[in-house]
Amino acid sequence: YRLYTREVHDRDMQDHDASEVQRQPLDDVILSLKEMLPSAEDVLPTMRELIEPPDECALRNALASLRALGMTASGDEDAPLTVLGECCAKAPVDMRLGRFVALGCMLGVSTEACACAAAISLPHPPFLRPNPFAATDPLELYSIAAKVFTARDRFDEGLLSEPLMCTNLLREFARQRTERARRHFISDNGL
Fold this sequence. Notes:
This protein has helices at residues 6-12, 20-23, 26-36, 43-48, 56-68, 83-90, 95-106, 110-121, 138-156, 162-175, 179-188. The chain is mainly α. Helix 6 crosses helix 7, helix 7 (95-106) packs antiparallel against helix 8 and helix 8 packs across helix 10.
């Protein structure tokens, strides 16, 4: 049994999912291949031999993107990875977040760069979202909203940046030494 009709299945459903190389950003795939394969010259021939090879224009754009981000020494298909490119290829994160963290490490702010990268990758902020279904009392709902608003304002420090606000929040949380202090911090700030 299915939750849709045979007509919907036949009309709207695909026979199979798109391949991973079609779903992932192509520059990420090329960066990973350049790191894995013994020679940078092997990457594009390997990409062209795939069952569903990417478009040549997309390959050229991905190579240009890698060069623009400083991951390769040039925009040529046989260009070797730079030190930054090697770091990002080994990191288990999105290439742009990896670049962000690597540059933060080079500038001596690795903790802040990691915290910002984590904040950027959050699907939503760590604060409670006032929900009338969970808190049926209007005063309780208002109290949660006020805690969240006050905490966001305090940790933002006028920067108007959610990643930096989350970094400040994480820094302050780390200053809480005991489990009890951390629980109070979470409760007091609507987390």
